[in-house]
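Quick board copy: two proteins, each given as sequence then tokens.
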Amino acid sequence: MTSEQEQIPQEFWQGIAEFNQQEFYKCHDTLEALWMEAGEPERTFYQGVLQIAVGLYHAGNENWRGAVMLLGEGIRKLNYYLPSYFEIDVDKLLTESTELLKNLQESGPENIADFVRSSDNTKYPKVVKLKS
């Protein structure tokens, strides 16, 4: 195990599993607990991932404004961690999140219900580990 792997809390991987299972509210709770206790640079990284998760939660609940705002904030924060951080392919996460944000913005708030119903959840970003 590398020293970086030893520094990654198990709760982080739990939050990532919740994210990828589209359990965005659970992910938020898990990562928020880490975020509140963390120092930099981990603190902002956790916050960026959890903001994307909450943005996806808002999208699923047809809250266009909340989805767009939080996806944008999370994307902005994670740009500092490109191309990867904590064994996470940040580039892939940002590419997928930016594409979803763009599609949401183009659909507009008046079409959020149609967007959510027509958009299968495979369009939601996934957090993936880099291959060793």
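And the next:
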Amino acid sequence: MTETPQRNSPDSGPGDKSLTKRGGGDPGTRGRTTIADGVVEKIAGMAARDVAGVHAMGSGISRTFGAVRDRVPGGGKSVTRGVKAEVGESQAALDLEIVVEYGVSIADVARDVRENVVAAVERMTGLEVVEVNIAVSDVKLPDEDDDDDEPEQRVQ
């Protein structure tokens, strides 16, 4: 006498799980993904710095503190300087503070920054960027010393 394998049927007992699908649904949709504000700030800061005409990010005071922090061993450059993000479950809003180079069109630079930041954040995070507010806090003149330049070495 040969036995045929029995398929899982509605009247099968609760212990018979041979053909029961576990978890249900697409594995990519199981669970939640949360993205920290700092992650979005880093992405936006990098995207804004890539735009021609943007000299630096942040206000004069934050750039001064940043320059000091950059010189401290292990301090590193702050990619998020001048960027503030508010991140929800599916949307993000950003505030950027930039310094533009003298001679460039501020309106064009702001538009380019907005486009670059929105594209980068949406592509990398999947979040909808609802607004990117840009505050131009300074203009870098050609004859001004750069706060971010390394100081001259006294000993050679």
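Board note added afterward: The longest helix spans residues 106-125.
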